[in-house]
């Protein structure tokens, strides 16, 4: 973290610095699609490549004999995703089941970056001499609302695609104007409004749910990291702060493992539910 010489950052400065992304330019508007958060892009792509590599490695080493631990874990995950997709999506799952598996693995890997020490990325950047170029860095893509809304917009596109594919353009438009209140000509406006609101609500809630949980987790890790510094008013207090930091950090990290996997599972399940609803006729 870059601070002025002789000036130690205050807790608010420390947290504000760690919650800023490395952006292509300064954002002055609430919505600005011209700005790119390079750290979110880098880590999301890196975790996507790592997830695909792990799944490819499991498929490459798969055998009909007694599976190893890695193969057994992947087979359990595949069976779980297949069972869930079979019970939710009533149609061809040749693309949807692998998609759900990819979503789970990808989101779980991105979430797991939150378990790394909060100051480790900045220290590595300083060690390699790039602190002058990379002035800010956030390592958790799912703690950035841009990243989670990007995933949810992708799910929205798939929802619309399968709605057109399964029902046809005419069937989809008919459902858009007649569900849920019926096909009376006076009801097509409220039907259309409710369906548009439903699509928007699904997209926003899908992204906001993941973002809110991971942002809260990231913020709590930052507060725990400050614990030792806040209590360093003497030798005894410093030791107490360090011990409290270790205990609180360890406890929250263990609990956060459940959040990491649970949020990945919820994202996968909601993806299946929303795509499954696109297969159903009203």
Topology:
Elements: H1 11-18, H2 38-60, H3 69-88, H4 96-112, H5 120-127, H6 145-178, H7 188-225, H8 227-230, H9 235-279
Helix pairs in contact: 2-4, 3-4, 4-9, 6-7, 6-9, 7-9
Q: What percent strand? A: under 5%
Helix content: 55-70%
Q: How would the global form be characterised?
A: globular
Tell me about the biggest sheet? none
How many β-strands, per DSSP? 0
Structural overview:
This protein has helices at residues 11-18, 38-60, 69-88, 96-112, 120-127, 145-178, 188-225, 227-230, 235-279. By secondary structure, the chain is mainly alpha-helical. It is built from nine helices and no strands. The chain is globular, with a radius of gyration of 23 Å. It has a domain at 73-166 and 193-278: Four Helix Bundle (Hemerythrin (Met), subunit A), CATH 1.20.120.
Task: Please sum up the structure shown.
This protein has 282 residues and is mainly alpha-helical.
Supply the key terms:
disordered N terminus, 9 helices, Four Helix Bundle (Hemerythrin (Met), subunit A), 282 residues, 0% strand, mainly alpha
